[in-house]
Design goal:
Length: 142
């Protein structure tokens, strides 16, 4: 997903507001989850949100969202946000986070989603660690 930082997205210093960025990331992750599940999906949690660098007005923001693993009705989506300065054409990572989406049926109840088959070494690592992250998430959300 691509966005341009406009004045209405920034604080008085001309820096992209954190909440606006997370909103964009949430939409990118929702598209990812819904394409996988072929169902309406809702955000259940957002964690490990790291604001690494600021983005400035006029920058081009690219958000990459990728499913790491699905469970029964939930899916973990990893998102990265990159900012590019138009004049220098330099890009840098500004944010990363894990989103959990739950697929719901016509009665807004959680419903089964298809499994994920990791293929690369990185995908296999993310897939394995997703189970531990899910356990931590459930433990800390109670
Ligand atoms: C997310 C929601 C559907 C879960 O419903 P629920 O009846 O509590 O469901 P369950 O306890 O049976 O859990 C269903 C799944 O959600 C996961 N889940 C529930 N709460 C979670 C949390 N805080 N963090 C991560 N996963 C969570 C469970 O682990 C389970 O996953 P699994 O089926 O893959 O094992 C429900 O809490 C809800 O509708 N929340 C509001 C969502 C919303 O409005 N989001 C913003 C707008 S999109």
């Amino acid at each position: 997903m691509t966005e341009v930082v406009c004045p209405n997205d920034t604080n008085p210093m001309g820096l992209l507001q954190g909440g606006r960025l997370v909103q964009w990331m949430d939409i990118a992750c929702a598209v990812c989850a819904q394409n996988h599940a072929e169902r309406i999906c809702v955000t259940a949690s957002i964690d490990s949100v790291k604001f690494r660098s600021p983005a400035k007005v006029g920058d081009i923001i690219t958000i990459k969202a990728k499913i790491t693993r699905s469970f029964n009705s939930s899916m973990e989506i990893y998102a990265q946000a990159w900012s590019k300065n138009v004049l220098s054409q330099k890009s840098y990572l500004i944010n990363e986070a894990y989103f959990t989406f739950v697929a719901i049926d016509d009665h807004a109840k959680p419903t089964q989603v298809p499994s994920v088959k990791p293929s690369t070494a990185i995908e296999k690592g993310e897939y394995l660690n997703a189970e531990k992250r899910k356990a931590t998430r459930i433990k800390t959300s109670k």
